Backbone:
């Protein structure tokens, strides 16, 4: 028997009716389902709307469809939560496949302690890998100390690392941050607005920002046995290395300075070293060399934006 839980699922989407259909069909197979799903669609066509108005066998969740008033992952989630009616908020991507009992296990993990504000699922095809010698040295430098594992941590200049999929670990593992691919939150733990206006378009690192804000007052956890496959889809936002490089620098600087409040000389040194490490990593193959000019251009533009922003904020009004 399917159980409906007091959850509002929030799904931003754009031109992804086929992967969204697969997501909804996997949800229909769950023993626990949310009462409602708020879909905010930025598509130029009606395919997603027709999907949302169709009947999906086994799906008890009420689908509420809305057109986006502004396009972007973060802003579409903001639009969605304004229409949510339930006490728990499930942030979902439109291209995930839920394994059996995923939502039930997320729910159980969140209910296991009144001090847990949010939990996320294990992404089976995006896993933490133990760092090699060079990466481990970098992590140790950025973190300022040695850790047996850096899984699930957010270290140095907001470098966020995935949780570890290890069967020897408990089912509920404490982490520093949660992704928005599949995360369940207590609504009372969430800020208003959900995401800052700083995050536009692809909204890189908006999930880190949100969970770090929640984590200041609540515990965060990875529900290791709640599992999903992330059927990540191509998109224009992923095809422009200059835009991604700029966004990565600008947004990481924002998280480092405004959310983590790491603003001393050592923090900026860590951020610089991380950026140089990312650029050096491109030089390992031909594809990386080809993208190098665009990445460098993006980093320079990102630095210019950071300097302009800081200058404006330091100017007396």
Residues:
């Amino acid at each position: 028997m399917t159980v409906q839980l007091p959850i509002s699922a929030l799904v931003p989407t754009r031109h992804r009716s086929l992967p969204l259909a697969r997501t909804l069909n996997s949800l229909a197979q769950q023993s626990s389902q949310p009462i409602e799903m708020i879909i905010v669609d930025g598509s130029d066509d009606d395919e997603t709307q027709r999907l949302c108005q169709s009947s999906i066998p086994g799906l008890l969740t009420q689908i509420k469809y809305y057109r986006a008033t502004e396009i972007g992952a973060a802003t579409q989630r903001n639009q969605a939560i304004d229409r949510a009616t339930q006490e728990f908020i499930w942030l979902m991507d439109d291209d995930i496949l839920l394994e059996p009992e995923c939502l039930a296990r997320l729910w159980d993990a969140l209910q296991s302690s009144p001090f847990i504000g949010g939990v996320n699922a294990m992404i089976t095809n995006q896993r933490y890998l133990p760092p090699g010698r060079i990466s481990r040295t970098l992590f140790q430098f950025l973190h300022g100390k040695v850790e047996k594992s850096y899984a699930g941590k957010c270290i140095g200049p907001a470098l966020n690392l995935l949780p570890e999929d290890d069967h020897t670990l408990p089912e509920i593992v404490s982490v520093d941050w949660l992704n928005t691919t599949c995360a369940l939150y207590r609504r009372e733990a969430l800020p208003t607005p959900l995401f800052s206006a700083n995050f536009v378009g692809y909204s890189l690192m908006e999930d880190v920002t949100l969970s770090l804000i929640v984590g200041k007052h609540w515990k965060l956890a990875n529900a290791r046995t709640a599992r999903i496959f992330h059927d990540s889809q191509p998109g224009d936002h992923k095809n422009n290395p200059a835009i991604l490089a700029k966004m990565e620098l600008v947004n990481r600087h924002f998280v480092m300075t405004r959310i983590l409040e790491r603003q001393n000389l050592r923090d900026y040194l860590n951020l610089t070293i991380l950026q140089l490490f990312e650029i050096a990593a491109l030089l390992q193959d031909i594809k990386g060399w080809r993208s190098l000019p665009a990445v460098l251009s993006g980093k320079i533009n990102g630095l210019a934006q950071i300097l302009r922003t800081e200058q404006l904020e330091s100017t007396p009004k």
Observations:
- The chain has a mean pLDDT of 95.
- The CA atoms of residues 209 and 307 lie 21 Å apart.
